[in-house]
């Protein structure tokens, strides 16, 4: 009996050690949980796999918010979450919406992502301590509203000049056609209210192009009388187009970028879709 007990001890010891290893090994090899994405996709934190992390996220919605919302079909005024007055994303950071607004004096702001806490923006014509944008209509009017996420500019087709750089480069920015005044991806904005409207882009590839600044999403009026040319050299460049609403003077300046890599994670010119996207969403890089 003693001999049989002696012979079992090594076997029991081996079994015990095996059980101990099988219990400890999963904890020893465990790592913090990481959501991995295939190259060219976004993680849930907005970091582009194998690319530079995005520092700012583009909005997923922009709401026309003000004392006119109940007139446009919302239950309440100043409702940042009312989808009825959402603007439509056009591309290159520009949002646009059209609504028939009754006659009267109205105030509004643009609110990001359905909540005031996410950011609200006004135009250059404001009133009151809250700096609400004003809109004065003598008769019911179809009004086009705009928000440019790149510059945070707010404007409308009644109180502001709507200026678009219409030229042979627009298809490079995702417009369906060139020389298209109605494609507001190349919208000019007057951020500081000094009557100088500006459009800038480093997404226009090497080549020679022409353009005019067209008003009101139509071909007339447009400035200057003849198309202005510009050339983007090898390695790319930042194209800056300006229009002065007082003198109608138009300028274009191209600043060389050299061979360095440029990427704007908030622009669908560089990446589609842009901004933060759900895990495993395919992302196309330019």
Which helices and strands occur, and which strands form pairs?
Layout: H1 2-29, E1 62-66, E2 88-91, E3 94-101, E4 104-112, E5 120-121, E6 126-127, E7 132-137, E8 141-148, E9 153-156, E10 163-167, E11 187-188, E12 196-201, E13 207-215, E14 222-232, E15 237-244, E16 250-256, E17 271-272, E18 284-285
Antiparallel strand pairs: 1-4, 2-3, 3-8, 4-5, 4-7, 6-7, 8-9, 10-11, 10-13, 12-15, 13-14, 15-16, 17-18
How would you explain this protein's 3D organization?
The chain has a domain at 161-261: Sandwich (Immunoglobulin-like). It is built from 1 helix and 18 strands. It has one helix at 2-29; strands at residues 62-66, 88-91, 94-101, 104-112, 120-121, 126-127, 132-137, 141-148, 153-156, 163-167, 187-188, 196-201, 207-215, 222-232, 237-244, 250-256, 271-272, 284-285. The strands form 5 sheets. Strands 1, 4, 5, 6 and 7 form a 5-stranded antiparallel beta sheet that branches. A hairpin with a 5-residue loop joins strand 15 and strand 16 (250-256). The model is unreliable at 1-11 and 23-55 (pLDDT under 50).
How widely separated are the two ends?
80 Å
How many helical stretches? 1
Main sheet characteristics:
5 strands, antiparallel
Helix share, percent: under 10%
Rg (CA only)? 28 Å
Spatial shape: globular
Name the CATH architecture of the domain at 161-261: Sandwich
- Low-pLDDT residue intervals, each spanning 5 or more residues: 1-11, 23-55
Sheet-strand content, in percent, reads: 25-35%
Number of extended strands: 18
In round numbers, the mean pLDDT is 81
**CATH class identity of the domain at 161-261:** Mainly Beta
Question: What is the CATH topology classification name of the domain at 161-261?
Answer: Immunoglobulin-like
Return the structural class: mainly beta
CATH superfamily label of the domain at 161-261 = Immunoglobulins
| H and E order | HEEEEEEEEEEEEEEEEEE
């Amino acid at each position: 009996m003693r001999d049989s007990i002696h012979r079992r001890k090594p076997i029991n010891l081996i079994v015990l050690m095996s059980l101990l290893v099988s219990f400890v090994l999963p904890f020893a090899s465990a790592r913090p949980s990481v959501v991995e994405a295939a190259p060219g996709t976004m993680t849930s934190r907005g970091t582009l796999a194998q690319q530079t992390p995005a520092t700012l996220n583009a909005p997923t919605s922009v709401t026309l918010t003000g004392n006119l919302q109940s007139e446009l079909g919302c239950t309440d005024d100043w409702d940042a979450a009312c989808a009825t007055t959402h603007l439509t994303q056009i591309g290159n950071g520009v949002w646009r919406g059209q609504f028939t607004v009754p006659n009267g004096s109205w105030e509004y702001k643009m609110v990001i992502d359905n909540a005031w806490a996410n950011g609200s923006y006004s135009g250059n014509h404001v009133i009151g301590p809250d700096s609400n944008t004003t809109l004065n209509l003598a008769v019911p009017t179809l009004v086009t509203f705009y928000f440019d996420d790149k510059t945070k500019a707010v404007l409308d087709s009644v109180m502001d000049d709507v200026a678009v750089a219409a030229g042979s480069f627009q298809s490079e920015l995702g417009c369906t056609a060139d020389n298209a005044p109605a494609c507001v991806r190349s919208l000019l904005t007057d951020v500081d209210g000094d009557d100088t409207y500006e459009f800038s882009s480093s997404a226009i590839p090497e080549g020679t192009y022409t353009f005019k600044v067209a008003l009101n999403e139509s071909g007339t009026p447009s400035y200057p009388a003849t198309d202005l040319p510009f050339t983007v050299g090898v390695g790319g460049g930042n194209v800056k187009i300006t229009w002065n609403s007082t003198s109608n003077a138009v300028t274009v300046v191209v600043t060389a970028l050299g061979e360095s890599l440029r990427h704007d994670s908030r622009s669908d010119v560089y990446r589609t879709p842009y901004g933060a996207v759900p895990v495993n969403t395919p992302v196309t890089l330019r």
